[in-house]
Amino acid sequence: MKIVLDCNVIISAGIRSGVCRRLVHHVLDHHDLYVSEDILMEYKDVISRPKFKAVSNYLYSLMEMICELSELVEPEKTEITLPDMDDIIYLKTALAIEADYIITGNIKDFPQKQYSTTTIIKPADFSNVCKIAAN
Fold it and tell me: Which residues contact 131 (CB under 8 A, 6 or more apart)?
């Protein structure tokens, strides 16, 4: 499957073991993860915030894996609006590669459940779809 991960999923994976951490590793191991330069910049910007200092080593390690294992996309410059304008980078990337899913903890920021071929889904729901086992 073609996947785009919202930054909040990456941060949640870094903060605690659980659904998001298992999900990120599952996506990296079993699916095609796509990012854009803007997505990578947001990941890096958020990871570097002082409030994440306690988990920064894990987050930077995760970021390295993402850079190594994801595919870089250059989305088209199209006009899209969303309630949270910061999420446009995820939708543009997903639409550019006809992603199956954008996985986000903030589905309210995506008014539609489906954009073209891309379904907006919460981490727990994606984990259920893929039957990601809890450890």
Answer: none
Residue pair 108/11 in contact by the 8 Å Cβ criterion: no
Distance CA 1, CA 110 (A): 20
Q: What are the pLDDT digits (tens) for 98-126?
A: 999 999 999 999 999 999 999 999 999 99
Long-range contacts of 122-128 (CB under 8 A, 24+ apart): 123/9, 123/12, 123/19, 123/20, 123/23, 124/19, 126/23, 126/101, 127/19, 127/22, 127/23, 127/26
According to CATH, the superfamily of the domain at 2-128 is: 5'-nuclease (3.40.50.1010)
pLDDT, position 135: 59
Q: 96: which 2 tokens? A: 């550019």
Q: Where are the domains of the chain?
A: 2-128
| pLDDT of res. 19 | 96
Mean pLDDT of 50-72: 96
Residue 18 sits at φ, ψ, to 5 deg, of 150, -155
Residue 49 tokens read as: 């915030």
Name the CA radius of gyration of the chain, rounded. Answer: 14
Q: What is the mean pLDDT of the chain?
A: 95
